[in-house]
Automatic annotation (TrEMBL):
GO MF entries: nucleic acid binding; RNA-DNA hybrid ribonuclease activity
Protein name: Uncharacterized protein
Coiled coil: none
RNase H type-1 domain boundaries: 224-338
Domain Reverse transcriptase zinc-binding: from-to ranges: 40-133
Pfam families: RVT_3 (PF13456), zf-RVT (PF13966)
Length: 360
């Protein structure tokens, strides 16, 4: 895990952990990941190629998705985010928009009186805004020249600048807007140099306060660790709980792979505990059918099924059958319980506490 952490990003680590490896020694095989059988088909190759083609020529909707992705990632105060959201949605009360809605008589900017007051004018082209941007490190001329709306500008900015600069950009915009409103209402606005410094220090203070809060950080880490899946194993005989185990498992898997991994882990565990079994019940029909079919497919799912077959041969006469989810309540309560613990829990010859409520 430490070598994964030092070499890969979190998002890739999750994917690497999601590759279920066989616990037995095997020759490596090439698997076509885009088919459940693991075998290449022209159809799945065509679908994948079409997806790549779409990525090369992003559609309007994917551009918009990218824009919102940048937007939600920004580490900025919520009032700045709300302001930015309104600007992107063309919802700021500027004269040009108010006139279109028959709320204002004129679209002319009442501060400079030289142009219509659009959102772009108010935030970039009006006299004070221009001075602020000139005093900043942001080179906006080309972006503004190529854009007709604020949304275009923000999209180009989010493509051009790193997130940190985009956050500064957002806070400067918000300060320009706030000072404009003050000026409208007769309050003397801050000089443009002061506005720039106060916008950036406002952002700096906000980000420092978030970093200093361990609770926030811990929540983030927890959220980033998702999706974490959980394994469960249970062995019973004559209606008595002989042994039960509940275990969290890192990584993100397809449901059938998850069920297969849970079964594989249970068999390994039972073997290590020297516990005999005669029947295995699972609510995964895919696992049962996959084991019965003994197919030559080579997907990750089939690789785990292959391990299960080998492990099952250590329990002579063992049979596996499918039961409906509702009949497998014990296992599901244990799986749910595993969500709340971060280590393996084992109960021997006792009713596991999470099951007390349904057994008693
Ligand atoms: Zn103006």
């Amino acid at each position: 895990m430490s070598s994964l952490k030092s070499n890969f990003l979190d998002i890739d680590i999750d994917k690497i952990l999601s590759v279920p490896l066989s616990t037995f020694s095997h020759d490596d095989k090439i698997i076509w990941h885009h088919e459940t059988t693991g075998i290449y088909t022209v159809k799945s190759g065509y679908i994948l190629a079409s997806k790549f083609a779409d990525q090369e020529a992003p559609s309007v909707s994917s551009l918009s998705t990218q824009l919102w992705k940048h937007f939600w990632k920004l580490n900025i105060p919520s009032k700045v985010r709300i302001f930015l959201w309104k600007a992107v949605q063309e919802c700021l009360p500027v004269a040009a928009i108010l006139q279109q809605r028959h709320i204002a008589a004129s679209a002319i900017c009442s501060l400079c009186r030289s142009n219509n007051e659009s959102i772009v004018h108010a935030l970039f082209l009006c006299k004070r805004a221009k001075k602020v941007w000139r005093g900043s490190s942001f080179l906006l001329d080309r972006i503004i020249h190529e854009s007709s709306t604020f949304k275009d500008i923000f999209f180009k900015a989010s493509e051009t600048w790193p997130q940190q600069e985009l956050e500064q950009f957002a806070c400067i915009l918000w300060s320009i807007w706030t000072e404009r409103n003050k000026e409208y209402h007769g309050t003397k606005p801050k000089p443009h140099e002061v506005l720039l410094v106060s916008a950036l220090s406002y952002l700096g203070e906000f980000q420092a306060s978030r970093q200093a809060s361990p609770t926030n950080l811990r929540n983030e880490v927890h959220r980033n660790n998702e999706p974490t899946r959980f394994l469960v194993a249970q062995s019973s005989s004559d209606g008595q709980v002989v042994a039960a185990m509940s275990k969290p498992h890192p990584g993100c898997f397809k449901p059938e792979v998850m069920e297969a991994l849970a079964l594989r882990y249970s068999l390994q565990w039972l073997q290590s505990m020297n516990l005999p079994i005669h029947y295995i019940e699972t609510d995964s029909l895919l696992v049962v059918k996959g084991l019965q079919a003994r197919s030559l497919n080579v997907s990750d799912f089939h690789s785990v099924l292959h391990d299960i077959s080998i492990l099952m041969s250590n329990f002579p006469g063992v049979q596996i059958s499918h039961v409906f989810r509702s009949a497998n309540t014990f296992a599901h309560i244990l799986a749910k319980y595993a969500l709340s613990v971060d280590k393996e829990c084992v109960w021997m010859e006792e009713i596991p506490p999470p099951l007390m409520t349904i057994v008693l």
